[in-house]
Amino acid sequence: MKQLLRVQNFTVSSDGIAAGEDQTLERPFGHHIAPRELMAWAVATAHWPNRTDPGGGRGLDDYFTRDFTHNIGAEIMGRNKFGPQRGPWHDHQWRGWWGDEPPFHTPVFVLTHHTRPSFTLSDTTFHFVGGDPADVLARAREAAQGKDVRLGGGVSTIREFLDADLVDTLHVVVTPVKLGSGLRLWDSPDELMDRFHLEVVPSPSGVTHHLFWRK
Amino acid sequence: MKQLLRVQNFTVSSDGIAAGEDQTLERPFGHHIAPRELMAWAVATAHWPNRTDPGGGRGLDDYFTRDFTHNIGAEIMGRNKFGPQRGPWHDHQWRGWWGDEPPFHTPVFVLTHHTRPSFTLSDTTFHFVGGDPADVLARAREAAQGKDVRLGGGVSTIREFLDADLVDTLHVVVTPVKLGSGLRLWDSPDELMDRFHLEVVPSPSGVTHHLFWRK
């Protein structure tokens, strides 16, 4: 089967916003967005990757968090998902938000115009790559060894790969929170319906899952 | 994490019936039930285990068929799921409904009072076991090597393990077809709500997913 490029568990506000514009070390999602609030639906599930206790719900939302690693062999992420720095890498102390055990467990390709050596934390290796989306995807596919590739975000990265028509499936979670300003994935999910099938599935938790797959 | 006992993709009619009572070689689900009709929701998905072409939907229903093998290390099934024969095994020609490539890919424990040697088809090994549900589950858990165990059905087997309070999660799919008579899983899903959380999720395909997990 073809190696798909998949967006998974990507969460936006009711007005389509995933992050603020003034990202800092203290506020990885930007000024007015608390990651815990936006991701509360996922944090409550049994398969939330960062869960350390045995609890958590096993309803609908859990099917999405448990699918996070399923048949994924690599991730591509934007530099702003990796960290708050901009421009050349001044030092190599920063190794991502995730501590010594990142939840990826595969090679991760971080998009950047600035070179930096690869490094490994536990079973995740971060590579720093430039080039156009098709080139980066080709490298990620090779590293994924037959499995699919996750497109991890943020918003700018997803839009760039959508513009290049490289995305095969998207799972976007819309939360009932309205944010007003920030980095916007869409004005409406209808924007994608020329190229994708769409199913809209309300969850008992209050979020609404949007499932897109290529026509 | 604990090894769960999970019912997955188990499909019943709107009146709770999963099989007719007069199962034969020609009608594996009993006299008035066409398996294709009951399972149409699953057959239409990209991850339907028997799919041979690259098509299929990737909406909500597909999350359930793709979860079929996820973290499953063994299956327990009733004898009537394995075949239409009753009583002692007269010969060992019958090796299940699934041909040379069964969709299980793990050890399978078939409940029977009658001894029969184990055999292997591709990466599935069938064992024939007696004993009470807790004993069978202990054997299946050992074979699953840390992974979960699927309880494959049919109705009588699921009810037996529910009566013994051994089931951790159930995913039951209710189709809009009404059957009237046959082997009934429940009169109403409410019967399980003293022991389980329940989320009821209508699918755009017309079926309704019922997700139970232990309180």
Automatic annotation (TrEMBL), chains A, B:
**Source organism superkingdom:** Bacteria
Pfam families recorded: RibD_C
**Where in this chain does the entry annotate a coiled-coil region?**
none
Database matches in InterPro entries:
DHFR-like_dom_sf, RibDG_C, Riboflavin_Biosynth_HTPR
**Protein name from the UniProt record:** Dihydrofolate reductase family protein
Where is the organism placed in the taxonomic lineage, from the top? Bacteria, Bacillati, Actinomycetota, Actinomycetes, Kitasatosporales
* Location of the Bacterial bifunctional deaminase-reductase C-terminal domain: 9-189
